[in-house]
Design brief:
Helix content: over 70%
Structural class: mainly alpha
Order of helices and strands: HHHHHHH
Radius of gyration: 26 Å
Length: 250
Amino acid sequence: MSTLAQRQWRQKAQTAVRRAVTAVKEARSRFQALSDGGDAATSGLANLALQLSHLPNLHLPEALSRVKSDVRAAAAAKLARQLSASVEGLGDRVRQLESCVEALAGALSLLDGVADQDQPWMRTAAIFHSMPLPRVRQLLSKVYDMYKLEHDSKAAVAAALVELVARPLAAAEAALTEAGTNGGSGPNGRQRDAVGAAVLAEVTHQGASAVQRLPDFCTTYLSVWMLSPYLEDEQADEVLVALDEDLASF
């Protein structure tokens, strides 16, 4: 390959590396913001589930027990609506986390687009000051790998939390559908009472052991989400600092 062609390839590789580094930084920033926001989202879902689990055995003072519409049923219906919204929001957050991982994978593909295995010198030539393209890709791959694992961990936590409330939510949906087909149109007292009663019945059916295990499950899932066990921020920072230093003055 001529000197001119090598220079042109190097310029193309420099552009790809710059774009890849920028994409990784942006994806990391978005992932972190989504993860931090997920602390409140997962905690909220767990708290709603815990509140719901205690409703069937909640002792009502006489003043509340005289209320015509069952307070517990009304509370259960409201909690079911809040849980449904929380589940939907958490699912959307996990999908956005996945898009961050896809952006990291896209950054690596930018580097793959300029590699040519038929030209051995491309594997050793410095793109900027010292790092050849394979070394740049190796460093960014470390960042991708940890965020991919962390996404998978958070997706598993979200799925497990949703599973904890899946049956009460299914009971609520079935009751709402049945109430609607029997002449109901839109939220009303009859639908609310029907949904609440169905949710309470399902929670009761799950039994005392499920209620007793729920706090431990919630604590475990929240701890895994908040700890972010696969993310090593210092290592990722070191990678990007090293790359920034190599790019300096170019």
